[in-house]
Structures are given as C-alpha cells and as structure tokens.
Amino acid sequence: MTIEEKIFKRLRFDPERMGPCGFIESADGMTLVRSFLDGDFRAEITVGIDGDVTGKVIDEESGEEFDQLRNQNYTGSFVNTVRDAYEKILLGISHECCSEVTFASDQSNRLAAWILSEYGVNPDFPWDDKNSKDAGVFRHHGSRRWFALLMNIRRGQVEKTNSTELVDVMNLKIEDGSAASFRGMKNIYPAWHMNHRTWISVILDDALPDEKVKALIKRSFELTAGKVSVMDEELVRKVLDVALSIPPGKVASYGQIARIVGREKNSRMVGRIMSMADRYGEYPCHRVVNSAGRTVPGWPEQRELLESEGVGFKKNGCVDMDKYRWEK
Question: Cβ distance 4 to 70 under 8 Å?
Fold first, then answer.
C-alpha cells in the first residue's frame, strides 16, 4: 500500500474544497504542487478522475523523484525527515479537502446505505480494539447473527493469486449445497475464512452490479434470520399484532409480549420475530426492548425513535421501565 493509499483509504475528495486547497486542473485530474523543507523538495499530488490519489516528491537540486521516500529499507534520519514532511502535507490535505466514509470502495458504501434503509442495520466493528476498521459486521437486530461481513483484504486472498491490491469483499450466506452454482461467476468466490459450503465472498469493485449483490444480501439475510416454520405463521402474526398495539411513548419487553401471546418462556422467539418483522410490513419494533429497558445493540436509531416519541432514558442508557412500560 502506498503512502497516499494509506492516508486516503476511507476518504473522498470534495471538489468544492479542492480549489481553495490549491488544486488546479491537469491532464490527469486535479493536481496540487507544494514546496517543503525550505524549498529543497516539491510535492506533486494528483487526484485522478476516478478518485485515486498519486504523488511524487521531487528533489529540487537534482530535478529527479526522491525514490528513497517509498523504500522502507531506507530508515536514515534524512529520509525519515522527508517522508514525515510529505506525510504531513498529505494529512493536511485530507483534513482540508476530504470527508470520511465507512468503507474503502464506493460500492461498499452504497450497499451499506441500502442495508441501513432496507433493514435498519448499521455495521459494527468487533475488532476495533485492534485499531482496525477493515472488517464490518452486519447483524440481525434480535438474534445478533451475522448476515454479512465486509472486509478490506488483498484481492489475491480470495482469487488465490499473487495480487496485493486491496479490495472490499463481502461474505454472504448461501444455501447448503449451492456453492457449485456460483463457480465461474464474476467476482464471486468461495468464502474467505468461512465455510465454503455455505458462504461466498463477493468482491465489491463495481464489476458486479449493485442489484445482483442486493439479491445475494437479501438471501443471506433470510438464511440467517432463524427458523420460523409455516405452522408458526399464526404466532408470528400474534406477536406482530401486539407490537402494533404498543402506543407511542410506551415500550414493552420481549418477555411481556411472550406472556401476552401465551408463550411465557419464549422471549427470545419474540426477539427473532422482531428482527424479521420487515418481511410482514411496517411495525413499531423500536418500541420493544428487553426486561431491563435495554435497546438493541448496534441500533442507535432505536433510542432516537423512542426519544422522539417522548420515552425517557435513565443514566445507564436503559428505558425507565417503571415510567414508560406499556400496561396491558
């Protein structure tokens, strides 16, 4: 990964901010030229039409590119001084001209926005404690099961080649026994680091249209949602009807709904049904919390919706159940 790729990996340039930063139009896109280290060196940074960032550092005395900058084997104080100064310029540009995005590829960010709109799910990053946002997990609200894992890894790791290009890859669930039907399909491979029989990896570089990936995401969501058999359809409707009865400004717990429908010991089942409610229509699932008043982890919008309806929260972040519990 180049210095430029590392710094601008999850950033997008704002064209309206580039001019004031010093960028001018060039044959390759937009280019910024800046002298540094008392005029001994010149940085030339170009943002291509496709958004890729490339850069050169020119030694003004020789007029040639200072190649040592990119060779990590050069660790002397002089090279490090030039390298640090160049990186400082790039960081300044990133702050002045760019906005942050969640994932590296444009297709990944479009699909993440669609998942939020379709399922109300934002990714969480379970490996953040390792200073990594290279793997985001999309989960069901109730069961917390994964239905998609989005990673930024080397292309060669999924293609089984020597390619070191970093790409966004989404792992998705498929029917057991259907893996062979995906062989040879563009950008679809046996899942990286997951069961090859029941998961696939999809490279998100816009070679596969969004609509095809969305269809795969929908199927993965269905396959990981948990089983609700045909004979339980009436029970599902009962649970959803109770949720529909909860008035604005009140909440009910999973256990409370389970008792109302005559399944006192099945509060987890209520949670699973809530996670699949969008299959049946529009239901106020945000008004259902656990017995302590805790909202669904990874769904910050739930609290926002409840507060907009007048529901109050305690200092520990839980709904004040004594005051806002729905009594039926």
Answer: no
pLDDT band of residue 135 (cuts 50, 70, 90) is: confident
CATH of 106-223, one of 3.40.50.720, 3.90.1150.30, 3.30.70.260, 1.10.3720.10: 3.90.1150.30
Q: How confident is the model at residue 144 (pLDDT cuts 50, 70, 90)?
A: confident
CA atoms within 13 A on the CB side of 5: 10
116 DSSP assignment: H
pLDDT digits (tens, 9 = 90+) for 69-90: 898 888 899 999 999 999 999 9
Does the structure show a pLDDT above 90 at 131? no
DSSP string, 123-141: -B-TTGGGT--SEEEEE-T
What's the pTM value of the predicted model, to 2 decimals? 0.57
Neighbouring residues of 58: CB distance < 8 A, sequence distance ≥ 6? 41, 42, 43, 44, 64, 65, 66
| Correct CATH for 230-324 of 1.10.10.10, 3.40.30.10, 3.40.50.300, 3.40.50.1240 | 1.10.10.10
DSSP H/E element including 327: none
DSSP 8-state code for residue 248: T
Average pLDDT taken over every residue of the chain: 89
Domain boundaries, the chain: 3-100, 106-223, 230-324
CA-CA distance, 253 to 328, in Å (whole number)? 12
- Using the predicted structure, report yes or no on whether residue 295 has a pLDDT greater than 70: yes
What is the radius of gyration, based on Cα positions, of the chain? 25
